[in-house]
Hints:
The complex is a heterodimer of chains A (397) and B (515). With 397 residues, chain A is α+β, with helices and mostly antiparallel strands. Chain A folds into two domains: 3-60 and 148-241, 2-Layer Sandwich (Gyrase A, domain 2); 253-379, Gyrase A, domain 2. Chain A has helices spanning 16-22, 43-52, 72-79, 127-133, 158-164, 210-221, 231-241, 284-293; strands at 27-31, 34-39, 54-58, 63-68, 92-98, 104-114, 117-122, 140-143, 149-154, 178-183, 186-191, 200-205, 226-228, 297-304, 314-316, 326-334, 339-347, 356-365, 368-379. Chain A starts with 15 loop residues before the first helix and ends in an 18-residue tail after the last strand. In chain A, helix 2 packs across helix 7. Chain A has a six-stranded mixed sheet with strand order 10-11-12-9-3-13. In chain A, strands 14-17-16-15-18-19 form a six-stranded antiparallel barrel. Chain A contains eight helices and 19 strands. Chain B is α/β, with parallel strands linked by helices. Chain B folds into three domains: 4-44 and 232-313 and 455-511, FAD/NAD(P)-binding domain; 96-225, no CATH class; 314-447, Guanine Nucleotide Dissociation Inhibitor, domain 2 (2-Layer Sandwich), CATH 3.30.519. Chain B has 16 helices and 19 strands. Chain B starts with a strand and ends with a helix. At the A-B interface, helix 3 and helix 4 of A face helix 11 of B. Bound molecules: flavin-adenine dinucleotide. The site of flavin-adenine dinucleotide has 41 residues of chain B, from helix 1 and helix 15.
Amino acid sequence: MTIAEVEQGRLRSPFFPRQAELDRLFRWHEWKGYASADGFYDTTLEYFSVRNSTGVFDLTPMTKYRITGPDALDYLNRLVTRDMSKIKPGRVAYAVWCDDEGQVIDDGTIFHLRQGEYRLCSQERHMAWLTAAAIGMEVSIVDETEDVCGLAVQGPTSFSVLQAMGLDGIENLRPFGLTTFDFQGTELMVSRTGFTGDLGYELWLTPDKAIELWDALFDAGKLYGIMAMGTEALEHARVEAGFIAAYIDFLPADVTVRTGRSRSPLELGLEWLVDFKKPNFNGRRALAEEKRNGSAWRLVKLDIEGNKEAHNSYIYAGKKGGKNIGFVTSAMWSPVCKQNIALGTVQAPHGKVGDKLYVEIYYQREMHWSRVMAEATVVDKPFWDPPRKRATPPGPY
Amino acid sequence: MSERYDTIVVGAGHNGLVCASLLGKAGRKVLVLEANDRVGGAAVTREFADGYSVSSCAHLLYQLQSQVTKDLGLKVELARDKLGTVALSADGKHVRINGNDVSGVGDEDVASYRDFRKRMTRFADLLKTYLNKTAPRLAKDASKSDMLTLAQLGFDIRRLGRKEMQEFLRLIGMNIRDEVTERFESDLLRGAVSFDAVLGTHLGPRSPNTIMTYLYRLAGSHARLSQPAGGMGSVTEALAHSARENGVTIRTGMKVKRIVVQNGRAAGVETESGETFSSRLVVSNADPKSTIMNLVGARNVETGFTRRVHHIRMRGDAAKLHLALDGLPSIAGVEKREFADRFVIAPDEVYVERAFNHAKYGETSAKPVFEITFPSFRDDSLAPTGKHVMSAIVQYVPYELREGWSDGARDAFTKLAIDTLSEYMPDLPQRITASELLTPADIEQQFHISGGHWHHGELVLDQFLFTRPVGGAHQYAMPLDGLYLCGAGTHPGGGVSGAAGRNAARAILKSEKVV
Ligand SMILES: Cc1cc2nc3c(=O)[nH]c(=O)nc-3n(C[C@H](O)[C@H](O)[C@H](O)COP(=O)(O)OP(=O)(O)OC[C@H]3O[C@@H](n4cnc5c(N)ncnc54)[C@H](O)[C@@H]3O)c2cc1C
């Protein structure tokens, strides 16, 4: 066998032909077997499309599981920490799931497609865990990653784009709602969800109509500044939104080896997702105990003085340094907020909202390294949180 | 809901009874619900043919822990004590084993066997201490007593002395075949020792871990075999009596359908007949798999735990063959008084391994191995005068027969077993007036043990001590508030020993204060 016989090393999304036409950078990486673009033109440009017009991100590699069966709701309620009985058909829930020790395996979104029929979407693959969770339950879990492709359509003009595309009634779709449209004889599912912290939608359909969808979308979006975007631009947007990412801000519990390297939802600032009123869910016992005894870590959003990005910085309680109390996991200069922002992990009880901490930033000027201890204030709210994100109907731009 | 109890024990196997009795003795209000019409579980005497009774599963007593008999003031009446072992040879040149002594073999084997037994009993004594203690926790939440037990274990191993410690650590994971072939010349001796190591397991002499199972067998009374008068059922009758004396209510013919879980807590049970009983604690003598998967339900516990329980290996290979005989069979080279002893058919270690091979693929052994007793020889209560019963454990008989268990399959195996026996007892077939074969599938069905497994879960290093029944749930308390296990599936394991039941009762009394 020769290498040439392997048709393709990485899976290509059904949108790939169109993306390839636009691509000026030829920078792709691997995402769960798929080729996924770092960017197409320029990261900053693409980032600004999300904040000023509309950016389109290919979600196809996102892992998708169809969960059905008489026990589907009970199953999900045991799987994730939040109460899924509150998520009615036509609604989407952001959720985390934990192992028995209350450590986060991953986060994702659960779409209640129809009564008793769900789709779980996550960055990582989880079949082994989902299957284990199904032992003793009447539920079917089908990986439909390759059967459903998706586009995130995000930014202030995204609503106008979809309206121009002819999706009548899209104005009624509330945040975390989902609805379906007929698209050239195929069902198009649209949810008002996203990873950018802005007004935005996610479009899902079967791959056979992928090209048609792309074309319709970009046709409609021409006047609204629509632009394809890659992972780097998305990464900036999600940090501004204060969203956490697996392998960056936390490690999935099932890949950690050393004790203390995984995180609980309480430690990741996701306590609002943990419903202790449910009598049983994975991790409940451990989390209840953690709640009683206190957490070891706390995820913080930091507003840092100056303009030097605090990548990988140690965090200290005092300006003099001493023993570090944590580290920065995501950092950037936020163009829209005009703020030097970061997400980090510190040892509890440090990191309460309003606490003044210090980050040790190393930066380079003409090859020479310098170091600065910058004051960092722990903030509560997402850095970027425009009202248009919540408005229904959203305004036209 | 009817009357409320402090504790409900599901199952009146010997461990359930030991546990219930100790809890009752400590003043707890205890209800025991047993599915079968009589107490005892797999330690029971039943009539299998008109006038013929036999210990249905366990037939020899050698692991009953002195701590148990002492705590409960139990006296077990024996029909015979210190049974010898006759390792049968078709040509009548048998090997006889009594304690540390062996005859019918060369001088070197005599010395070598004594040496082997001495070392093994020494290691087994070390193990014994830990059988009667809750296995310590290793995790960061280990308690002071966990640390003490662990330190003690380390200390005890160290105290063996450097050479013996190395030997212990070398042997503990090893297979019995390597040890017997290195030590003994005699095929029959190799066969008999290998047989004892694999009895009751889904393991062959070449399987790793079979030294450990051999040590486990010795860790009680150094495998001093005895036969209770009236069969094994009299031991559990005595335990039931002790429990009742301690105020425990025992109800038979009450199969528990589910353990009721309320607000994330075991709160009682519901029986197949629809009765419900509420209690503060539920203690299950049923095996871990059926307790969690069938009685509690996966949805009431967490996924990691469910997965571990689901994967407990527990496919039994030990069947029981009971024969009603109108007289004792003749065995070449065996004197009549020796019918009080135990006979083993395991001509050499390769024969045993071959017998096991079949079971791996869902077949019955073409040449099975046997442990045979004639309990009526010293116990008149089991058969009409002048008549006898034979009680034999036969391996390997797979729980899941490839073609499925049917009457036909059962008859075919009965015939094969009798044919094999006839090679040693030529007139046996003419003496048989009735027979009963209990395959592991029958044992599962009649005694409610998943897989019909002797130990309620394979006794192997990855399902032992800290990981029995599964890691993180090895201290009798299950990860569901109010639920405990007390049966053979928990530490230390099976056999009529009472250790699990006693350890569980002690764990409960230590951690659950009455409110
Ligand atoms: C073929 C065979 C031969 C053996 N020979 C020997 C031997 O010679 N010597 C020896 O020491 N050991 C022997 N053993 C092992 C020994 O019998 C067992 O390890 C021991 O009896 C287990 O005791 P236990 O109390 O833990 O469980 P069990 O004896 O299995 O008792 C559990 C009880 O729970 C009851 N139960 C289960 N589910 C329910 C429910 N839902 N509702 C109500 N009740 C329920 C069952 O009916 C049963 O009575 C043998 C085992 C087998 C299978």
